[in-house]
Specification:
The complex is a heterodimer.
Chain A (H helix, E strand, L loop, with lengths): L1 H7 L8 E3 L2 E4 L1 H9 L2 H7 L12 E6 L3 H12 L4 E4 L15 H6 L1 H22 L12 H25 L3 E3 L1 E7 L2 E6 L4 E11 L13 H4 E2 L1 H4 L9 E4 L3 H12 L4 E5 L9 H13 L3 E4 L13 E2 L4 E2 L5 E4 L24 E3 L11 H16 L26 E8 L14 E8 L5 E8 L3 H13 L4 H6 L30
Parallel strand pairs in A: 3-4, 3-8, 4-5, 8-16, 9-15, 10-11, 10-15, 11-12
Antiparallel strand pairs in A: 1-2, 6-7, 7-8, 13-14, 17-18, 18-19
Helix pairs in contact in A: 4-12, 6-7, 6-10
Chain B lengths: L13 E9 L1 H7 L1 H4 L4 E4 L15 H6 L1 H22 L12 H25 L2 E4 L2 E6 L2 E5 L5 E12 L2 E3 L8 H4 L1 E2 H4 L9 E4 L3 H12 L4 E5 L9 H12 L4 E4 L1 E8 L5 E7 L5 E6 L1 E4 L3 E3 L33 E3 L11 H16 L13 E3 L5 E5 L2 H8 L4 E7 L3 H6 L7 E7 L6 E7 L3 H13 L4 H5 L32
Parallel strand pairs in B: 1-2, 1-6, 2-3, 6-17, 8-15, 9-10, 9-15, 10-11
Antiparallel strand pairs in B: 4-5, 5-6, 7-16, 12-13, 13-14, 18-19, 19-22, 20-21, 21-22
Helix pairs in contact in B: 1-10, 4-5, 4-8
The chains are: A alpha/beta, B alpha/beta.
Chain lengths: ~500, ~500
């Protein structure tokens, strides 16, 4: 906390009081401000005294990402005058991108495509076992992949601009900042400023990766913001962090043939089921990813390397250190909201990653944006409700392990039998509440196409799925998902869950 | 398909509590009875196909069905992935050749390991296994004949018939039996089938044609009338449309009249186009008949036991407890009348039967809402009612169909055609809009469909499905994003992320 405080003010003593982001000071300063009437004036800001006569827009949305765009498109349906302000502050490396937010540009989309590139590398190896006459070693071209990925992203950026235009949503590539009640200043990348007023505002600015604050981090390291458009192959990479961002990046980098090490301070995938997290780590290690556990980087410096061989000189090969966002604290400026996404200012709302204590997922932001617009403009009362299909350890769900039956099994995807790989590595588990008819409260799968498998079960969980219903459902054969219809061994029993074939 | 035992002495008879005939996958579950302390015997025998193909313990699924089919389907899919890989930066020289021999050997080896696994499992559970062909002597006794002609007798308190079915040969077509093969043979061929004509419109026909095309063979499918009879017809059209635009040739509305062998060894097939009445002919290396299956009841001597069969289908008539017309004789799986011809239903039926006979259970099978997947090049997963079934049952005004054309993210960089990637959810129109059926056409359709099948079993409504947050980015999330109804007439093409 001291570190965060030192970033805001040179004062080292606590308490330090801030009112509306303005530092007043300690006890003495607050008292003085009150006696002089300054405190009351500050608190009164945003009151009706300072309102514009009429508003330029019904709704100004700051942030053109998953949440912001969903809200914009929905609000436009009800003939509201909407503006979206989207601006990408370049990374320390200078990377920037277009409309669409994190998911489209530096998140879900490029991540999944690069994940697919890695999976295809494995497919090339498998295909030989299936009779395809592919060379034993196939090289991967980073630039070709990034170009293809960026082209697709570009088409999405374009698609969003067209969609906004069609729905008559005004879009400006400008950085929005509040300047007074109902007023916002938009600054474009040339420095030109414009002021707009709106009846309501929606903050959907999302997040950016955090740097660790060690010497050399901003100069020599990159983040997920840079990786997906890196113009050169990252080469031998150190990934610092243990979040899903870290592991996913490390995973696909290794999958396309790079030498990858992951530096983990403590545990993997904090907040996720640790049983599953460890299995993931194990699998990655078995497949060539190195892990350095219980270490943190303290300094990064450039080592001048010149690899010379008889034919050409490779210049500028630097060790790329990849830093990824670890966890975040409440001091990072997240916005707390009510369950209707309203901030402490009645006409300002917030959705998406910028929120405190909410799941940072594109579909959540999209749903929040859409529902918010419906509540504001279409008389709806529906709020966001989430299925916790993402693995939560039974502890967090309030069940002690005594009250839960955990059924589990290894399984071997049929497609992996012919290339003889990874037997008894894929794993399925359901957590059932003994006190509620063995209702399935947790679903976990480690295996190929996990997302495709999990989605339907998430819907089933929402419908109150019980173990008995699971057992009575016929499996589709032969697919991975069917394993869930034949789970019979509980963890408690200690029975063997090794698979021996069909 | 028989039960028999080598006996201690001439004329002596073993008494077994339960003897099951047929596919050991089913029997292994019935062998759960052995775990309940009963003496169980399984008798399995494979009558060679007309081509001479035979196989080991495990039944159709393991040897000439689901397993080898899915592996060859995977081989075909990998061919597509090799092409995709280039777009994703992999420097793989194209085009890549495929070796049937290598694939067949790998597939056959895996199947053999499963045969072995089954034998070990039976042994572990103390189930006696006999590789003999069985037929009834009376309602408690069965006679079995070994490959060498040795006869033995076996008697039991309870008998389970699980003999399944075999592919039908259209014997009315000249040359069909002599020169054609079936799914019993295709997975065991040592040499590539080459240019192949697949006759039939079943999922067997389309799946085989699909993977043959995918590994680079010249493949034609001859369909008499409609593809995938019994399945949702809109989905079936999309399946064949995809195949047609990816290299499979279709001869619609045609029936073969003759198969001749040419001097060089190739096959000449003559057929009639039913609309024009014209005849046509072409030459193939292989003709694969996929025109339906017949139950394996003909050689069982059922009349000696009193077990009745359906006059139309020849399948064994059973009640809800899987009992035949003879109380202590049961029938499960493909051989039983009115049952879906699926491995998982057979397995579950076997397990439940054993529990009813020897455990203290009274649980019956629920055959409603059984999910399935057709493993054509673009896979089709479905559960519940087809659109036409729903309309027939409830009336058009009471049915609401939500649908979407979507594009799998992985198709983008790979520049693949996603025209037939389509989802539809058939619901009741009245709130809360109960989901009657889900149909998914796209990659990994089985993985997508399984979980939703559970939701439907729990009585999922459209509203509940829509309140489920999507997993992004996947294909299955498109199911929980279905917003456009057919009735609205709006364009159901999904664009962008949200």
């Amino acid at each position: 906390m001291e570190a965060a405080l030192s970033e805001l003010t040179p004062e080292a003593d606590v308490p330090v009081v801030f009112v509306k982001q303005r530092k007043i000071g300690g006890h003495g300063s607050i008292l003085k401000a009150y006696q002089e009437g300054r405190l009351q004036k500050l608190l009164k800001m945003n009151d009706s005294e300072d309102l514009p006569e009429s508003y330029d827009y019904d709704l100004v949305i700051i942030g053109g990402g998953s949440g912001g765009l969903a809200a914009a498109k929905e609000a436009a349906k009800y003939d509201k005058k909407v503006m979206v302000l989207d601006f990408v502050t370049p990374t320390p490396l200078g990377t920037r991108w277009g409309l669409g937010g994190t998911c489209v540009n530096v998140g879900c989309i490029p991540k999944k495509l690069m994940h697919q590139a890695a999976l295809l590398g494995q497919a090339l190896r498998d295909s030989r076992n299936y009779g395809w006459e592919v060379e034993e070693t196939v090289k991967h071209d980073w630039e070709k992949m990034t170009e293809a990925v960026q082209n697709h992203i570009g088409s999405l950026n374009w698609g969003y601009r067209v969609a906004l235009r069609e729905k008559k949503v005004v879009y400006e590539n400008a950085y929005g900042q509040f300047i007074g009640p109902h007023r916002i200043k938009a600054t474009n990348n040339k420095g030109k400023e414009k002021i707009y007023s709106a009846e309501r505002f929606l903050i959907a600015t999302g997040e950016r990766p955090r740097y660790l604050g060690i010497p050399g981090d901003k100069e020599y390291c990159i983040s997920s913001d840079d990786l997906f458009s890196l113009p050169y192959c990252p080469g031998k990479t150190l990934v610092v962090g243990a979040s899903y961002v870290a592991l996913e990046c490390a995973g696909f980098l290794a999958g396309i043939g790079l030498d990858v090490t992951v530096m983990v301070r403590s545990i993997l995938l904090r907040g996720f089921d640790q049983d599953m997290a460890n299995k993931i780590g194990e699998h990655m290690e078995e497949h060539g990813v190195k892990f350095i556990r219980q270490f943190v980087p303290i300094k990064v410096s450039r080592v001048a390397c010149r690899f010379v061989d008889s034919i050409l000189m490779l210049k500028g090969k630097k060790r790329v250190v990849l830093m990824v966002a670890a966890s975040f604290s409440a001091l990072t400026g997240k916005i707390p909201v009510t369950d209707e996404e309203q901030t402490n200012v009645p006409y300002i709302y917030a959705i998406g990653d910028v929120l405190e204590d909410k799941l940072e997922l594109t579909p959540v932001a999209i749903q929040a944006g859409r529902l918010l617009a419906q509540r504001l403009y279409a008389g709806s009362t529906v709020k966001v409700r989430l299925t916790s299909f993402v693995s939560l350890p039974s502890g967090i769900m309030g069940l002690s392990c005594l009250l839960a039956n955990v059924y589990h099994s290894y399984f071997w995807p049929l497609e992996w039998t012919v290339p003889s790989r990874d037997n008894n590595k894929c794993y399925a588990k359901v957590v059932c509440n003994i006190k509620d008819n063995e209702r399935v409260v947790g679903f976990h799968v480690l295996g190929p196409n996990a997302g495709e498998v999990t989605q339907g079960f998430a819907a089933a969980l929402k419908c109150g799925l019980t173990k008995k219903q699971l057992d009575n459902t016929i499996g589709i054969h032969p697919v991975c998902a069917e394993v869930f219809t034949t789970l019979s061994v509980t963890k408690r029993s200690g029975g063997s869950i090794l698979q021996t074939g069909c | 398909v028989a039960m028999a035992a080598a006996l201690r002495g001439p004329g002596a008879r073993f008494r077994w509590r339960l003897a099951a005939a047929g596919g050991a996958r089913v029997a292994a579950r019935v062998a759960a009875a052995a775990q309940l302390g009963r003496r169980v015997a399984v008798v399995d025998y494979v009558e060679p196909s007309p081509r001479g193909t035979r196989w080991g313990l495990g039944g159709t699924c393991v040897n000439v069905g689901c397993i080898p089919k899915k592996l060859m389907h995977q081989a075909a899919l990998l061919g597509g992935m090799i092409r995709d890989a280039r777009h994703y930066g992999w420097e793989v020289a194209q085009p890549v050749q495929h070796s049937w021999r290598k694939m067949a050997e790998a597939v056959q080896n895996h199947v053999k390991s499963l045969n072995w696994g089954h034998r070990v499992q039976l042994q572990d559970r103390k189930v006696k296994y006999f590789n003999v062909k069985a037929s009834f002597v009376n309602e408690h006794t069965v006679c079995g004949v070994t490959k060498d002609g040795k006869e033995t007798l076996l008697s039991a308190d309870n008998i389970v018939i699980a003999t399944g079915g075999r592919p039908r040969y259209p014997t009315h077509i000249e040359g069909a039996l002599e020169y054609g093969i079936t799914s019993d043979d295709i997975f065991w061929l040592k040499e590539s089938p080459g240019k192949t004509l697949v006759v039939g419109a079943s999922y067997v026909a389309l799946e085989c044609a699909g993977f043959l095309t995918g590994i680079g063979l010249d493949t034609t499918v001859m369909i008499r009338s409609i593809p995938l009879r019994g399945f949702d017809q809109q989905m079936s059209s999309l399946v064949t449309e995809h195949m047609a635009s990816h290299g499979t040739r279709f001869l619609r509305g045609c029936t073969p009249s003759q198969v001749r062998r040419l001097p060089a060894g190739r096959l000449q097939v003559t057929w009639e186009d039913r609309t024009s009445g014209k005849e046509d002919t072409d030459t193939f290396d292989t003709v694969l008949w996929a025109v339906g299956r017949v139950p394996e009841t003909r050689s069982l001597n059922l009349e000696k036991s009193g077990v009745k069969t359906s006059p139309d289908s020849q399948k064994i008539l059973v009640d809800s407890r899987d009992a035949t017309s003879v109380p202590h004789i049961y029938a499960i799986g493909d051989v039983a009348e009115g049952r879906p011809e699926l491995t998982p239903t057979a397995i579950m039926a076997g397990r439940l039967l054993a529990q009813r006979l020897f455990g203290q259970s009274a649980a019956l099978m629920d055959y409603d809402n059984v999910p399935t997947t057709v493993f054509t090049p673009l896979e089709y997963g479905c559960v519940g009612l087809s659109e036409e079934e729903a309309v027939a049952r409830h009336g058009q005004e009471h049915v609401e169909v939500y649908h979407a054309y979507y594009k799998p993210l992985e198709f983008t960089v790979a520049e693949r055609d996603a025209s037939q990637c389509y989802i539809k959810m058939v619901c009741l129109r009245e709130p809360p809009q109960l989901v009657l059926g889900l149909h998914f056409l796209g990659p990994n359709a089985g993985e997508v469909t399984q979980g939703f099948a559970l939701g439907i079993r729990c009585g999922a409504s459209y509203a509940q499905v829509m309140r489920t947050v999507g997993i992004h980015p996947t294909c299955s999330e498109e199911v929980v994003r279905l917003r456009i109804s057919k009735r609205s007439g709006l364009d159901p093409t999904v664009t962008g992320c949200g």
